[in-house]
Design goal:
Elements lengths: L17 H4 L11 E4 L2 H10 L6 H10 L4 E3 L7 H9 L4 E9 L1 E2 L2 E2 L3 H14 L4 E6 L3 H4 L15 H20 L3 E4 L10 H10 L6 E5 H6 L4 H8 L3 E6 L1 E2 L1 H9 L5 H6 L3 E2 L8 H10 L5 E4 L8 H25 L2 E7 L2 E4 L2
Parallel strand pairs: 1-2, 1-12, 2-3, 3-6, 6-7, 7-8, 8-9, 9-12
Antiparallel strand pairs: 4-5, 10-11, 13-14
Helix pairs in contact: 5-7, 10-13, 13-14
Length: 347
């Protein structure tokens, strides 16, 4: 009679830390940190009434998928408790997002207070960047993707002056706390188009106000992300990496998709590498100047489950950084590194 098969006890191995596996020696942009944004996990809950995952569950996924850090998400712990839950997961707080209330006549009376409240959250949790944007408005939401055309509501001169004054005051508060401020041009707001971005850059002090270039929003606004990253150079201190579905973008530009809000619902933003964005070109531009800030992989909404979409973005980014690193190594350049303003070469 044959003896019953005996099974060896399962060997439980600790899960590998993908942060190590996805950042290899020789990759481009070795000084940059890679984060993501919790809203991807929350969008369907907001839009379709699905159960919202807990903030802690989202942080677990962000760590598991190989990211270095996160934006402050809804329902998250704050202050020392947030520092603790991030630390045990090997994560950092990359940014706190601050949407300033606004109309075409300028910032609302409480805009500075809103910004300062968000700054306090950043400081209490030892975060890096206060990412400031204008809140969306219905009149600009329905002009997104075609805001460069006639009939688009625009800021008055007084509104521009008031915005710059508030940004400088908020930047001074931020710098005084040892943090950095970066302004995020955003589709569906009064600073979306390349002309509006250029005006903001020209009117603000570069030593106080950095630019967070969201390459997806800049593409929606009618701009060329590679061109502006190269032209603005060191003025871009924070980057959101977001790809754009070309079919939805065309619908938005033609008016077939009625608004930015509707475009997000039909998945204007897609996984990195699957859309119209020249992602390798953006990363080469950043590597060429040794960028060492955050790269925030962001999508807003997705057809696949959120963790699947985030994993795709993280791995596509890893592949392109490795490819650019190999290109640079072949030319005798250490990818993304500079010394005393000059590129470091291999000998």
């Amino acid at each position: 009679m044959s003896q019953p098969e005996t099974r060896r006890p399962a060997r439980h191995r600790p899960a590998p830390d993908l942060r190590v596996r996805l950042r290899r020696p020789g990759d481009a942009l070795p000084g940059a940190s890679i984060g993501t944004v919790p809203y991807l996990w929350n969008y369907d809950a907001d839009d379709e009434g699905r159960p919202r995952p807990s903030a802690i569950a989202i942080l677990d996924e962000i760590a598991r998928l190989g990211f270095d850090g996160t934006q402050l998400g809804p329902g998250s712990p704050e202050g020392p408790e947030l520092r603790r839950v991030l630390a045990v997961r090997g994560l950092r707080l990359a940014e706190v997002y601050a949407a300033l209330p606004v109309t075409k006549d300028g910032l609302a009376a409480d805009a500075l207070a809103v910004g300062c409240e968000r700054l306090q959250l950043l400081h209490a949790a030892a975060g890096d960047v206060l990412c400031v944007a204008l809140d969306g408005t219905p009149d600009r939401d329905e002009r997104a993707g075609r805001a460069g055309g006639d009939g688009t509501p625009r800021f008055t001169e007084e509104a521009w002056t008031g915005l710059v004054a508030v940004l400088h005051r908020l930047a001074d508060e931020t710098i005084g706390m040892g943090r950095r401020l970066a302004f995020h041009p955003h589709a569906g707001t009064f600073i979306e188009t390349p002309a509006e971005v250029d005006r903001l850059v020209a009117m603000t002090d570069p030593t106080r106000v950095g630019i967070c270039l969201d390459v997806g929003h800049y593409l929606v606004g009618g701009g060329d992300p590679v061109e502006v990253l190269t032209r603005l150079g060191e003025r871009v201190t924070h980057v959101h990496l977001k790809d754009v579905d070309p079919v939805v973008l065309e619908g938005l530009a033609s008016g077939g998709v009625a608004s930015f809000s509707e475009a997000v619902r039909v998945r204007l933003f897609t996984e990195l590498g699957a859309g119209a964005l020249d992602l390798p070109g953006c990363l080469r531009s950043l590597a060429g100047r040794g960028y060492s800030g955050w790269l925030m992989v962001e999508q807003d909404s997705s057809w696949p489950p959120p963790s699947e979409a985030a994993a795709i973005g993280r791995r596509v980014l890893a592949q392109i950084l490795a490819s650019i690193g190999r290109e640079s190594s072949g030319r005798g350049v250490v990818a993304g590194s500079k010394q005393d303003g000059a590129t470091v070469t291999r000998h």
